[in-house]
Amino acid sequence: MIKYAPDEIRRRVAALGPWFHNIDLAGVATAPEHFLGDYPAIKWQRFAHALPADLSGRTVLDIGCNGGFYAIEMKRRNATRVLAIDIDEDYLRQARFAADVVGLDVEFAHMSVYDVASLNERFDVVLFLGVLYHLRHPLLALDLIRDHVVRDLFVCQSMQRGDPTVARFETDYPFQETAVFDRPGFPRLAFIEHCYSGDDTNWWIPNRACTAAMLRSAGFVIDGNPEEEVFICRPGPAASQRAVYPARPNGRGNGAMP
């Protein structure tokens, strides 16, 4: 049974716009003129194979769900429960409408990534797609996700800029060594003081090596990198150094010079 007539869908899509996710709602595209093309479908096609085709019996948390594209895709893969969160009420209204039109049961909540510990629940699959570079405190967010909500699979995608090389480096260097910071493939995180691409919520943009390094630092084991910006991870042993800066075991404290 069709819940909405095409004209009603078009009217609601226009009223809820602008959309960042282009979603096919019974033949009505929500963002047909997207500057990235059919986004995020074209991105999803490049890493969809890296996630389980059947999520029956599994729970999913979609952090920063935007218009709901990925949450809907997880439900289409038979996830038992999908909870999608975002801090932007406009995006949540879009996502609720999209899920309603396609007839899929997705839960939505207004919540920041920094508040995920309050869920008091771990999810089999956690999506963190297109969020990292919008955060003023990205490592804190990764720590919270690792410590409080991921049970099995963590999928992280971030916009990346700079050298795409991922090189090997020593785990430590003497204080006098400075040339290593200029080597290709060194993890770098670019700070955006004002605005990038017309978006003043773009704060930190990593290169590829930095995305991987941050994930490892937060205690994730990277199982795959099926698309340049996408990392498939699982929680490993908790990292010894957290983004909340605990005292170091040797008692030297933070910022101590060698």
Key features?
258 residues; alpha/beta; Rossmann fold; seven-stranded mixed beta sheet; two-stranded antiparallel sheet; 6 helices; 21% strand
The CATH architecture term is 3-Layer(aba) Sandwich
Contiguous helical run count: 6
Which class best fits the helix and strand makeup? alpha/beta
First and last CA, distance: 69 Å
Q: Give the CATH level 1 class.
A: Alpha Beta
Name given to the CATH homologous superfamily: Vaccinia Virus protein VP39
Molecular shape: globular
Helix content: 10-25%
For the record, the count of structural domains works out to 1
CA radius of gyration? 20 Å
- The averaged pLDDT comes out at 92
The low-pLDDT segments are 247-258
What's the SSE pattern?
Answer: HEEHEHEHEEHEEEHEE
Q: What name is given to the CATH topology? A: Rossmann fold
Name the beta content range: 15-25%
Structural overview:
The protein has a single domain, classed as Rossmann fold. A 7-stranded mixed sheet has the order 5-4-3-6-7-11-10, with helices on both faces. The chain has a two-stranded antiparallel sheet with strand order 1-2. By secondary structure, it is α/β, with parallel strands linked by helices. The protein contains 6 helices and 11 strands. It is 24% helix and 21% strand. 35% of the residues are buried.
